[in-house]
Amino acid sequence: MTTNELRTLVEGVTRKLLDSIGKSTLDWLKEQGIGVTIFAFTFKPGALAYISTSDRADMIRSLKEWIAYQEAGITTEGRGERGQS
Questions:
Q1: Nearest to 38 by CA among 71, 4, 11
Q2: Given CB 3.0 to 4.6 Å as the disulfide criterion, which of 4, 6, 17, 54 pairs with 58?
């Protein structure tokens, strides 16, 4: 597959996954102040796509926070057993 074909494929995957969650669930999550971001990518370099229900700035802020935790060796917020890697 070409890079463009892979990109089209992963973009379709993100849309399909978001659609499968369903509008009522997405609406409920939004009411709770929760956004959803789905990434699809190929295992070898070439294609990455995402779709998000949140504002771009909020999604980027959340991703930066998540990456900082990962790089620090913490899998989630540093509270309790789940917060430790």
A1: 11
A2: 54
pLDDT (tens digit per residue) in 5-57 = 898 999 999 999 999 999 999 999 999 999 899 999 988 887 889 899 988 99
Which tokens in the block code for residue 45? 């370099």
What pLDDT was estimated at residue 22? 93
- To the question of pTM greater than 0.85 for the whole model, the response is no
Helix, coil or strand: residue 35: coil
- Cα–Cα distance, 36 to 28 (Å, whole number): 12
Is residue 76 within 8 Å of 83, Cβ to Cβ? yes
Residue type, 21: I
Instruction: State the angle between helix axes of 23-31 and 3-21 in degrees (0 to 180), rounded to the nearest 10.
Output: 70
